[in-house]
Design a protein that fits this description.
The complex is a heterodimer of chains A (about 250) and B (about 375). With about 250 residues, chain A is mainly β. Chain A is built from 2 helices and 15 strands. Chain A has one domain. Chain B has 15 helices and 2 strands. Chain B has helices at about 1-15, 60-70, 80-85, 130-135, 135-140, 150-160, 165-170, 180-190, 200-205, 210-220, 235-240, 265, 300-310, 320, 335-350; strands spanning about 250, 275.
Chain lengths: ~250, ~375
Amino acid sequence: MKALLSSAAKLLFTLALALPLASCSDDEDEPATGTVQVAVQHTVGSQGLQADETYTSPSGDSYMVQKLRFYLSNVKLISQDGRTVYTQPDSYHLITLDGKAGFSLDEVPAAVYTKMEFAIGVDEARNHSIDQFGDLDPSNDMVWDWTTGYKFLSLEGLYTGDTKNGGLVFHIGEDSNYKVFTLELPQPLDLRQRPTGNLRLVTDVNELFRNPHLIDFDELNTAMGGENARKIVENYSQGFIRIESGE
Amino acid sequence: MALLRFFLLAAFPFLFMACSGDKEEPHETGPNPPKPYELAIPATLPKNFVIPPDNPMTVEGVELGRHLFYETKLSRDNSLSCGSCHQQQLAFTDAKGLSTGINNAQTKRGSMSLANMLWFSQFNWDGSTNTLEDQAVGPLEDPLEMHQPLHESVNKLQQTQLYPPMFEKAFGSSTITRENILKALAQFQRTLISGNSRYDGYLQNKEVFTSDEVEGMVLFMTHPDPSTGTRGGNCGDCHGGVLLTTRTFHNNGLDAQPTDNGLGDVTGRASDKGKFKSPSLRNIALTAPYMHDGRFKTLEEVLDHYNEHIRFDTPNLDPLIIEATNLPNGTSLGLTIEEKRKIIAFLHTLTDTTFIKDKRFSNPFK
């Protein structure tokens, strides 16, 4: 049934795109635009991340991930000269290990882009409202409550440490932990030459636990807020996500 | 699924924006096509949901579904309907630990509330079906439940005065089919929306909570963290969000060796053994007894389980439960008696009295 629904959705979506084109595309002189596909790939060091596989943390504990989900939001592309900035409208993407692994940036003005900006988290304006849909579904499992807002990043799993073993529960949220990233593209993305482009974002789960705070799971295996959550945020602020160009 | 919903929501407006001015109608069936059913979604419930494109909701389809839901001819001995185990005054449950089929056959699980099924994509305690249309086949045909093959139901309904014209109005043909029985039942169930509890009023600033209810709500939603002095009941990790469920599956430490594998039997994965759906807690004060096998008679017993009786030796115990304590280096949740009482006070705010009295959901034969 899922396959059926999915193909039905695809059909609808195709129809939705095709209909307006077929029936009323008589505008001339529209500025040239392109489409950029963004794919997100999860890794641990040099290995691909898979649920229930065992990995070694930077401090030498073994662990497995059962759930990894985070909000990648407010995506922008910034041109070489800084004069063209593409801002994706309604830009909230719940990236998950077992589900959504990418999205499309549409109607991007043709220009040469050299930087990508995005955030991990949900901005304060949207973080405390139940009146929204799409990936901000207020019934998904990223919701805390309407005071705290959404979990920005959620990692759950199990670990075996040097002295103990148990669960890993890292739930990171709160407005003060909303973190904006501006990353240089490895090579300029020229949408004037070609109207389609690909960007690949790669996460490294070990970077949640490495730098500047080396996380020993025997000492710290849960974080819900406060200082411990802050440590994880400071860790994922550097190295957790990098960009690799598609082509 | 979230992505799918998003696409559907994104795609629908475009369909209607095409320049031709044509209006999309549910499939035309004859001179009197059925009227589209307008779902009224309460302000506090999500805008994300999917109606299967091949089963658009119509006024006539929903009304037919309501009759079928309460129709005892759908059981082998004409003694039971869906409504026997899903009683409106109990938020569509039956107050039994294990529900019973014809001849008092005992099933292995309790009947689940049918509130807000519109927002679900995995049904039953074990997530064994993905649409309401498919879900109904189980209880209708299972020898331990209504025990009547659908082709037999088709024959029985076809011979009545009542149903052929109702199917004609809903689906354009008086010839009854298995598919249309399932579609109508699903349409009716999608109308069973519960979003008018005191908690919904509170979320809209229309209702004032007592201090116990507020404290209970905060405890309910909070995962405890002794390192920051944050006290929590750890309920929202699985029962959070406006549906009061994250629609996920968990082993919540009931038994060292689960006798019912739940999701594990559906997926075949050892890591899913002993996992069951975390049900919505809307109307939870009405749906005792609790757990998939109804082992806890009261909410107090449920809180005592999570607070004091988790089996840490069960396989696949959820990390959210393993790592939930209010005490530094604690090995149990560690809520106080007062805190448990306050959480239960909050749970009572989830009762929706309009839902259980709504005439549109009631038995049309009474």
